[in-house]
Amino acid sequence: MNLETKWLEDFVALANTRSFSASARQRHVTQPAFSRRIRALEQAVGVTLVDRSTTPINLTPEGQLFLITARNLVEQLNECLGHLRGVSMAREALDIVAAHSLALSFYPEWISRLQEGLGELPTRLVAMNVGEAIHVLREGNCDLMLAYHDPYATMQLDAEVFPSFSIGQVKMLPVSLPDPKGKPRFSLESKDTIPYLSYTQGAFLGRSVRMLLKNDPLRLRLRTVYETAMAEGLKGMVLQGVGLAWIPDFCVREELKSGKLVRAGGEKWDVPLEIRLYRCSLVHKPGVEKLWRQMMKLPRDFLQA
Fold first, then answer.
1. Under a CB-based contact definition with an 8 Å cutoff, are residues 95 and 142 in contact?
2. Would you report the helix, strand and coil content of the chain in percent, each value rounded to 5?
3. How far does CA 127 lie from the centroid of its chain?
């Protein structure tokens, strides 16, 4: 039998409230996600625990028996963890999911700056692609999502359900390894075919570059020699002299400053990007609510990295 502790806690909450919506609020998840977790618990134990035909809901006879065990297990586990962690629990960390490039190169500097205005802010960060991050946010399995803003609305996030803060204005720059004279080895200004390091088809950053090149004849001179979903992966290949790529400016700031990389074209080839911090308004976790209120009080320039 494969049981998750959170399912037991969900079931105890449901037994107390007799309401899926009220229990979901109490457990800081969306109602659909909460309902799926109760279904998963029932599948794990092999019996129906909840009679959904009544309002308010009732437990089945099997559910009433299982409730005793569930409560005992939850209480014993909490008591044990309380002893292990000491008299007072540390402030609960916020779970944040972020696009890979933001997690590696943007987040550390931004969160340090934010803490200057808000004080200590414990967080847990997981890097993943944008599609996965959106799914996790919608399921209520994270507190916040750090992602590039999508001006073409392909992410399909309702602004009322998923409010956001703008926390950064950045650009994607075409970059290349320099030649012995310090000029780009691969230049967008040349008339030659250019070895191109591309984002994979589903990558968000790749979509932004494709929109820039959509109606420009330059795209016919770009010969794709390598693809990956991650900006850091493209950066590594650029540093090896394999080709040219568009990389977020915060990822190549040091390399451009030191001369290890150079711009491969003028500013007309830059792709502007906005970075946003998202939350789900249907999830009412106290730590997230407090952070959101605090951020609303900060000057706009304090939020911008």
1. yes
2. 45, 20, 35
3. 7
The residues near 29 (Cβ < 8 Å, ≥ 6 apart) are 37, 139, 140, 141, 283
Question: Are 197 and 244 spatial neighbours (Cβ–Cβ below 8 Å)?
Answer: yes
* pLDDT attached to residue 89: 43
Of 219, 231, 207, the closest CA to residue 151 belongs to 207
Q: 20-59 burial, b for 16+ CB within 10 Å, e for fewer? A: beebbbbbbbbbebbbebbeebbeebeeebbeeeeeebeb
Map residue 51 onto helix, strand or coil. Answer: strand
Q: Report whether 129 contacts 100 (CB < 8 A).
A: yes
∠ CA 142-82-291, rounded to 5° = 35
Separation of alpha carbons 125 and 136, rounded Å: 13
Whole-structure pTM value? 0.71
Give residue 152's pLDDT. Answer: 62
CA 301, distance to chain mean position in Å, is 22
User: Mean pLDDT, 10 residues at a time, over the chain (305 residues)?
Assistant: 87 94 92 94 94 92 91 84 56 86 90 84 89 86 89 72 90 96 94 94 87 88 94 95 96 95 95 92 83 81 62
DSSP symbols for 142-156: -SEEEEE--TT-TT-
Residue in 223, 130, 237 with CA at minimum distance from that of residue 175: 237
